[in-house]
Structures are given as structure tokens and as C-alpha cells.
Design goal:
single chain, mainly alpha, 23 helices, 0% strand, globular
């Protein structure tokens, strides 16, 4: 009987309505609190869904903060051990691997969170399709990388490209499990996975760099990180894939999955096209400088915007049949995200020319200037990240694909036009392109969901105003303090502390929503102390 208990598939039991599993395993599956099928009853953005969303955002914030702190430390160490050219070569190699990942994995798993009813056939079909596709692509990259890299005169990137290709099947083994877990708002599991894999992978990358692996240290980091991700995903969702692969299910989900995969590829291509343009017209070092600047901006975005966008698909998918409730949830998430992202990006823009060289070394001084230029994209950054979850929740894969194609074409045009004038000109052209694309993006959102441009812009207006005022104060303070100290670290710390205090006062003064949040948190703290 004990042997039979081990073979029970908890996922199949929950979904198929078969007889209960033995008591020990039943308790384990009940802890997952599986969500009811979305078509059982109309969903609203009520207290229950708000609570699930808030807790998922909280766990995502904790995940990203802990993950990014360690990732930042690893990035600083590797930036000091490796050269800008090394990072440039890695960026080119990673472009191929990321495109392969989108083809093999990215599209199909998105059918799980937005499915109105989850079935064993859907889960098994997604898993086996992902694994098969990733294996085919890994071997295709192994065979095709040498001639393609030679044709592009990037033969030095061949080995890293081939190594990163085998990240694909490793990632595919755990992608379905984590998507199933996230469908249940299981972002706590994702937080644990990220911390564990980031720590182990980062340690492996640093060890490889110290022992002289050079560019291969970054490949080692990625392979170890993905292997750990997969192991933790299986532990978080103890489901064993079955034999319910269905051609009918594949046909039913293929169109949406294909459009999302194309959209993800097209979303990756602008950055990779930028790498190729910079590498061919300016040099590999320019690719490394630009990538380091983007990475610095992304560290801020990952901590302020991603906690909301990661949860957005699960929340908005439950509201896909009610545009009024969906817009309400969208505004809530955008406004809360902007309260964090706007001051962070404005503050980074003010301090980047001094902060980046102080952290990474003088050889990255140009990256500090690029970070400052990129920070002018504070408005597109605050809004762009939520376009994909909204359209994905509504099943508008073709619209996403169209927008991604538009982004790719305009990025190439602006980059080619600016590259002869240097790296800083390319960065400025990137900012200009982002603002010119914003009206098209808002129009697409309105066509798909009824969301008006003023709904989106008003959600970020007050955080943006408070952030700009704070940025002016920090800029003046930095100009006063910098001549007083030989090293930039002390004035940087003082400016960060001052900026946080000034922004807190300003956002409290001009935003009723921020005041309600502050009062609510204060009441919660008082209630806990009374209970204690």
C-alpha cells in the first residue's frame, strides 16, 4: 500500500475528481489551495482577489529585493573581474539563447495562467511540447552556431552560444511546474526558488571568474542557476508529468502560444539588434558599456515594477470577462508601482554619473552617463511593463505581436541613425523612440480593453510630480556636497537618504491614495501591538 501512495499524482487527483488520495498526500495537496476554474463564476476585483494579489506582490517584492541584492553583488564582482569586451561577447551569445528560450518555452506556458479551466491534458501537453522544442533547438544551436557566428565575424562568441543553448532543456524541465504554481498565486515558492538559484548560480559564476574562466564564467552562472531553478520548481509543485499529451489540446492552444512566443522573440530582438549594431558600428566594448547601463536600470525596475507585473497576469486573467473590473485592477497596480519606480528612476538618473563609476570602477564611467540618459524614460518604463499582462490576459496575442514588431522596426531605425554619432547618441535616440511609441501603445490598450489614455497617465501623475521635485532637491544637494568629499560614496549615501525622506513627505502631501495607504499601515501596526 505504501508503494501505491508514492505513485499517486496529486495534480491529476485534484483536476479529474478521482477518489481521494491517502491522508498524508491529501494534506500536502490541500496546502496548495487550488484556485477554482475561472468560468465557474464571474470574477470581480473584490477583497479576496485584492488580498491574493497583495500577498503575491509582497512575496514577489521580497523575492526581487533579496535576489537583486545578491545579483547586484555578483554583478559588481564580475564587472571588476571581466572586461567590457567580455560582457559584450556574452551579450551577443545570450541573444541567441534568449530567442531560443522564447521559441521553446515562452509561449506555451502562458496558456496555463489564463486558462479558464485547467486540465491534465493541458499541463502534460505544455510540458512535453516545451521539452521537445527545447531539445531540438539546443542541438540546432550546437550545429548552426559555428557557421552563423563566422558569417557575422563573431567566431569568438561561438562557444558561449553553444553552451547557453543547453540552458533551454534545463529550463523547460521546470517551466510548467512553476507556471502551475503561479496560477495558484504561489509566488512564495517563486521567491524561494529565485533566492536559492541566484545564490548558488552567482557563487558558481564568481568562482569560475576568479579561477580564470573569463567569459565562460557567465555561462557557468546561467547553467547552474537554471539547473537549481528546475530542482526547486519540482519541489514547489510535486507533480509528475503524465501521458496525457493531446494533439487536440495542442491545436487549441498553439495559436495563442505561437503569438506569445513571436511577441517574446520580437521583444528580445530590439535589444539584441542594438547589441549587433553597436558591436558592428562602434565595437564590442560599446556593447558591454551599453549592456551594463541597461542592467543598472533593470536592477531598479526589477525591484519596483516587476513585483506587480509578475502578479498582474494571474490577477487580470480572472477579470478578462469584465473590462470595468480589469481597468480598476490595472489602475491599482500601475499607481502602486509608480510610487516606487518613479522616485527610484529619477533618483538614479540624478546620481548615476557618480554612482556607477564608484560601484563598478572608473572603466564604466560612460555607462553612468548612459544610465542617466535611460532614466529619462521614467514614463514609458512605468506604463510599458503592464501592456503585456493586460493583452495576454485578454488573449490578444496577435496585438502583442504587432506592437513588438513595431518596437523592433523603430529600434533598428533609430539605432542605425544614431550610431555614427556615438554611444551616447544611441542612448538618447532610445529615449526619444520610447516616447514616440507611447501613444501607439496606449491606443492599442484602449482598443483591446477600453482603457483610456487618461486612465493610465493619471495613475502615475502624482508619483511622477513628487519624484521630479525630489530629483531637483537631490541634484542641488549633490552639487553642494560633492566638492566637500574626496570620495563619492559619502555624498551618494547622504543624497539617497535625503531623497527618500523628501519623496516620502511630498507624496504624502499631494496624493490622497498615499495618505490612505500610510494610515492603513499605521492602523495595522497599532492593531498588532494591541494584540501583543
Amino acid at each position: 500500500m505504501a508503494r501505491t501512495t508514492i505513485k499517486v499524482d496529486p495534480f491529476m487527483t485534484i483536476l479529474s475528481g478521482k477518489p481521494p488520495v491517502p491522508q498524508k498526500l491529501k494534506r500536502r495537496t490541500e496546502l496548495r489551495n487550488p484556485i477554482d476554474p475561472l468560468d465557474d463564476q464571474p470574477a470581480t476585483y473584490d477583497d479576496t482577489l485584492r488580498k491574493k494579489t497583495r500577498w503575491s506582490i509582497l512575496w514577489t517584492v521580497l523575492r526581487i529585493l533579496s535576489d537583486q541584492v545578491f545579483a547586484f553583488i555578483v554583478f559588481v564582482v564580475l564587472a571588476r573581474l571581466l572586461s567590457p569586451a567580455d560582457f559584450g561577447i556574452y551579450a551577443i551569445a545570450q541573444a541567441v539563447a534568449e530567442i531560443g528560450r522564447a521559441i521553446a518555452i515562452g509561449g506555451m506556458v502562458q496558456n496555463i495562467p489564463r486558462a479558464k479551466k485547467l486540465t491534465p491534458a493541458l499541463a502534460d501537453t505544455v510540458f512535453w511540447t516545451n521539452l521537445t522544442s527545447s531539445l531540438v533547438l539546443a542541438f540546432a544551436i550546437l550545429l548552426l552556431a559555428p557557421p552563423i557566428m563566422n558569417m557575422l565575424e563573431l567566431s569568438h562568441a561561438t562557444g558561449p552560444v553553444q553552451g547557453l543553448g543547453f540552458v533551454l532543456p534545463i529550463a523547460a524541465l521546470g517551466a510548467t511546474h512553476m507556471s502551475l504554481r503561479l496560477r495558484e498565486f504561489g509566488h512564495k515558492s517563486l521567491a524561494l526558488r529565485s533566492v536559492i538559484s541566484g545564490t548558488i548560480g552567482g557563487a558558481a559564476g564568481i568562482a569560475a571568474a576568479v579561477t580564470g574562466f573569463g567569459i565562460w564564467a557567465l555561462v557557468v552562472q546561467r547553467l547552474v542557476t537554471e539547473a537549481t531553478n528546475t530542482l526547486v520548481s519540482w519541489q514547489a509543485y510535486p507533480w509528475v508529468p503524465g501521458r496525457n499529451f493531446s494533439k487536440e489540446q495542442l491545436r487549441a492552444t498553439w495559436a495563442f502560444g505561437f503569438n506569445i512566443a513571436v511577441q517574446q522573440i520580437l521583444s528580445l530582438l530590439p535589444r539584441r539588434a542594438m547589441d549587433l549594431i553597436l558591436g558592428s558600428m562602434i565595437g564590442a566594448a560599446a556593447v558591454g558599456l551599453n549592456r551594463t547601463a541597461r542592467r543598472t536600470n533593470e536592477l531598479v525596475l526589477h525591484g519596483t515594477v516587476n513585483p506587480f507585473t509578475v502578479v498582474a497576469l494571474q490577477t487580470l486573467s480572472r477579470l478578462q470577462s469584465d473590462s470595468t473590473e480589469l481597468i480598476k485592477a490595472y489602475r491599482w497596480m500601475v499607481s502602486k508601482s509608480a510610487m516606487l519606480s518613479c522616485p527610484a528612476l529619477v533618483g538614479l538618473g540624478v546620481l548615476a554619473p557618480e554612482a556607477v563609476p564608484a560601484l563598478f570602477g572608473d572603466k564604466w564611467e560612460v555607462s553612468g552617463k548612459i544610465v542617466q540618459i535611460f532614466s529619462f524614460m521614467v514614463v514609458p518604463y512605468a506604463l510599458n511593463s503592464f501592456t503585456s499582462p493586460v493583452l495576454m490576459a485578454l488573449g490578444r496575442g496577435a496585438t502583442l505581436r504587432t506592437f513588438a514588431l513595431f518596437q523592433l522596426i523603430t529600434t533598428i531605425i533609430f539605432a542605425l541613425a544614431a550610431a555614427p554619432f556615438g554611444l551616447l547618441a544611441v542612448a538618447a535616440a532610445t529615449v526619444l523612440r520610447a516616447y514616440l511609441a507611447l501613444p501607439f501603445q496606449l491606443w492599442m490598450l484602449r482598443s483591446a480593453s477600453g482603457l483610456k489614455p487618461q486612465d493610465a497617465l493619471s495613475a502615475i501623475a502624482r508619483p511622477l510630480l513628487a519624484s521630479l521635485m525630489m530629483g531637483a532637491v537631490v541634484w542641488v544637494l549633490m552639487a553642494v556636497l560633492q566638492p566637500q568629499f574626496e570620495r563619492a560614496l559619502v555624498p551618494l549615501v547622504l543624497c539617497v537618504i535625503t531623497g527618500m525622506a523628501v519623496y516620502g513627505v511630498l507624496i504624502y502631501a499631494i496624493s490622497e491614495e498615499a495618505r490612505k495607504m500610510a494610515h492603513g499601515q499605521l492602523k495595522a501596526v497599532r492593531a498588532r501591538f494591541r494584540k501583543a
